[in-house]
Specification:
Helix content is 29%, strand content 39%. The chain has 4 helices and 7 strands, in the order βααβββαβαββ. It binds coenzyme A.
Length: 152
């Protein structure tokens, strides 16, 4: 998509973050949780903007040399135009810059769209947590992608 920009989100982006969180997730995180993440030194949030409109975002937690993908979402009005793919590429690039070892994530077993996306990046299935998403009775699938800095 032309004229889009990827940048880190700041506290000033909280309203945009709340908006997209509410249209993307059945259990959106609260204002307090999101502002806490924006202020945390351990969590990074970056997104795709079109003229200051937040179209998609990705957040991750860095634990030693592991990146834990927390959220990846695209506003339903802009889906299937490659935005999540762009953000995942950016995540991998950031991981390589900081010499992270792997990216880990959990996804609901019925989230076909996201699973297709992760598989296309060569994420490998490494586990399953039964009934993890209690509100919809779904298992969580655990995926991992080793980065270039890994000896595995
Ligand atoms: C999953 C999600 C992030 C994909 O965002 P997107 O910007 O539409 O994805 P992209 O356009 O970058 O698609 C990349 C690839 O993902 C897969 N994919 C995305 N949507 C798909 C769909 N509806 N059906 C099948 N595959 C799909 C495809 O492999 C696609 O590649 P292709 O278009 O070349 O076939 C988006 O559907 C979303 O926000 N879902 C709700 C939030 C969520 O569940 N996030 C993941 C868990 S945190």
């Amino acid at each position: 998509m032309d004229s889009t920009l990827i940048r880190d989100l700041q506290l000033e982006d909280l309203e945009s973050l709340l908006l997209i969180e509410h249209v993307c997730f059945p259990l959106p995180r609260s204002r307090e949780m999101l502002s806490g993440e924006l202020e945390s030194a351990d969590t990074s949030i970056f997104g795709v903007f079109l003229a200051e409109e937040l179209l998609a975002y990705c957040s991750f937690l860095l634990v030693l040399d592991e990146m834990h993908l927390l959220r990846l979402c695209t506003n339903p009005t802009h889906r299937r135009s490659g935005l999540a793919r762009t953000l995942l590429r950016e995540l991998v690039a950031r991981g390589n810059v900081i010499r992270a070892h792997q990216i880990l994530l959990e996804v609901a077993a019925n989230n076909y769209e996201a699973i297709e996306l992760y598989r296309s990046f060569d994420f490998k299935l490494i586990g399953r947590r039964a009934g993890y998403y209690a509100y919809e009775g779904q298992d969580a699938l655990l995926y991992s992608l080793f980065l270039n800095n890994s000896s595995n």
